[in-house]
Amino acid sequence: MANVIKAGQLGGLGVIVVDTAADNIVAAGNPVKISKIRWEGATTVADSATVMEAGGSTPFWEGTVVGTPAGVVTDESDFYSDRPLILNGLKVGALTHGKLYIYVGT
How many other CB atoms are found less than 10 A from the CB of residue 61? Predict the structure, then answer.
């Protein structure tokens, strides 16, 4: 599966499903409001995932497996719905296994 955007297509509430690290999830210059990030399906200890602004090099969110059984929710972060994270574009710098569900809104 390639990375996909579901529901709202960034025009409203929706979820971006990411299964491959990529620089171009949402291009720089396009604001993205993130309300939640969920990582599922890591398979081994030391699997990792990082999310950052499109032009950035420092992750604003990262997760690393330290002993979670395979296939369960590895990490989940909820941000305030009335104060979501607002980023300038979006990229996933690392995703060794599993999928990231990035919940976005208007």
Answer: 19
Token pair recorded at residue 64: 């690393």
Closest CA to 33 of 19, 16, 49: 16
Nearest to 23 by CA among 49, 54, 67: 54
Is 32 within 8 Å of 10 (Cβ atoms)? yes
Q: pLDDT for 3-14, tens place per residue?
A: 665 555 445 568
CA distances from 77 to 13, 80, 84 (A): 17, 10, 11
pTM for the predicted model, two decimal places: 0.80
User: Residue 67's closest CA among 42, 49, 94?
Assistant: 42
Hey, what CATH topology would domain 4-105 get? Jelly Rolls (2.60.120)
Query: What is the number of other CB atoms lying within 10 angstroms of the CB of residue 52?
Result: 20
